[in-house]
Specification:
- It contains 9 helices and 15 strands.
- The chain is α/β, with parallel strands linked by helices and 307 residues long.
- It folds into 2 domains: 152 residues, Alpha-Beta Complex (Quinone Oxidoreductase, Chain A, domain 1); 126 residues, NAD(P)-binding Rossmann-like Domain (Rossmann fold, 3-Layer(aba) Sandwich).
- Strand 11, helix 6 and strand 12 form a beta-alpha-beta unit.
- Helix 3 packs across helix 4.
- It is globular.
- The two termini are 13 Å apart.
- The relative contact order is 0.17.
- Bound molecules: NADP nicotinamide-adenine-dinucleotide phosphate (NAP).
- The site of NADP nicotinamide-adenine-dinucleotide phosphate (NAP) has 30 residues, from helix 1, helix 3 and helix 4.
Length: 307
């Protein structure tokens, strides 16, 4: 198989395309012939070495947390999937940027019928993040006001659609050129955060989904109702401010969950969710990572592993 390998931590220049032996699926795992691999900010955060204290990885490793493709071999005891099934999943913290990957069956679901495998490969991590933020940490309800920062990005674009699916009123921040895109996704109100302060635009919010962190997160306390929820997968909200404002703070790491992903697949097939994917060939993983590092992409990024 072909795989992108990292022999030393650093910038995207260190990525190498290698030929190597196919991995062998262990008990409860399948081997996937990968059609696409999603590209996420976690990939370049790991690549830089900034996370090695929390996520120690033996070198070399293959970046990439999510894939879609066809099951081509079954490990011992696998009954959930058959050879030929088209699957997608948030498979691990690394291993996705390759033409073959192994994954535990509990992390996979059948790919949405209405998406190509390349499109589907860019869905699991961001959709699960948005789903878990809004349903598990914020328990979003019909008619609640939900403010989503960085709404045009990977997690944000999923979150806008999921919040609308649950009947919320969605306030979305993005640069002006992304506002028409956000309206298409269902956002009720959009704000250009580069020219206007969101805390002078919205108040009495039930849920803030913070996908930016830093000062954006700190200023978010003031727009929330008492007992509102400030949920962030980026960093832990300040506890003392949460106390002062009477806000419920939540920080979490996304859990891989094949059952939840199957529900998300159904939402795609019923037309409640869509995804916009910009694709790069596997050999240009560097270009895809650099695009992600720009922090100004719209929708999702994926590597086409068939090219
Ligand atoms: N803890 C976890 O398990 C977990 C899981 C998933 C994601 N995350 C984290 O969540 C964050 C978001 O992930 P993502 O995949 O959605 O990132 P992304 O796709 O790279 O986000 C890009 C978007 O960010 C917007 N943006 C940049 N700066 C902004 C600001 N100051 N205010 C509002 N929007 C801003 C850009 O909007 P414009 O181009 O419109 O300006 C762009 O659309 C990342 O830090 C990621 O690492 C954590």
């Amino acid at each position: 198989m072909k795989a992108i390998r990292v022999y030393e931590y650093g910038n995207p220049e260190v990525l190498r395309l290698d030929e190597m032996a196919d991995p062998v699926p262990g008990e409860g795992e399948v081997l996937i012939d990968v059609a696409g691999a999603g590209v996420n900010p976690i990939d370049w955060k790991i690549l830089s070495g900034a996370m090695k204290a929390f996520i120690p990885l033996p070198l070399p490793f293959t970046p990439g947390v999510e894939v879609a493709g066809t099951v081509v071999a079954l490990g011992k005891g696998v009954t959930e999937f058959s050879i030929g099934d088209e699957v997608f999943g948030f498979i691990n913290i690394v291993g996705g940027y390759a033409t073959k990957a192994v994954a535990q069956v509990s992390k996979l679901a059948l790919k949405p019928r209405t998406l190509s495998a390349l499109q589907a490969s860019a869905v699991p991590a961001t959709a699960l993040t948005a789903w878990q933020a809004l349903t598990e940490h914020a328990s979003v309800q019909r008619r609640q006001k939900v403010l989503i920062h960085a709404a045009a990005g990977g997690v944000g674009s999923m979150a806008v659609q999921i919040a609308k699916y649950f009947g919320a009123e969605v306030y979305a921040t993005a640069s002006a050129h992304n506002h028409a895109y956000l309206k298409d996704l269902g956002a009720d109100y959009t704000l250009d955060y580069t020219t206007q302060a969101f805390d002078e635009w919205v108040s009495d919010v039930d849920v803030v989904l913070d996908l930016v962190g830093g000062e954006t997160q700190t200023r978010s306390f003031a727009v929330l109702k008492r007992n509102g929820v400030l949920v962030s997968p980026v960093s832990l909200p300040n506890m003392s401010l949460a106390n002062d404002y009477g806000v419920i703070p939540a920080n979490f790491a996304t859990r891989s969950d094949g059952r939840q992903l199957a529900l998300i697949a159904e939402l795609f097939d019923k037309g409640h969710l869509t995804v916009d994917v910009e694709a790069y060939p596997l050999a240009d993983a560097k270009g895809a990572i650099e695009k992600s590092m720009s922090r100004h992409l719209r929708g999702r990024l994926a590597l086409d592993t068939t090219k």
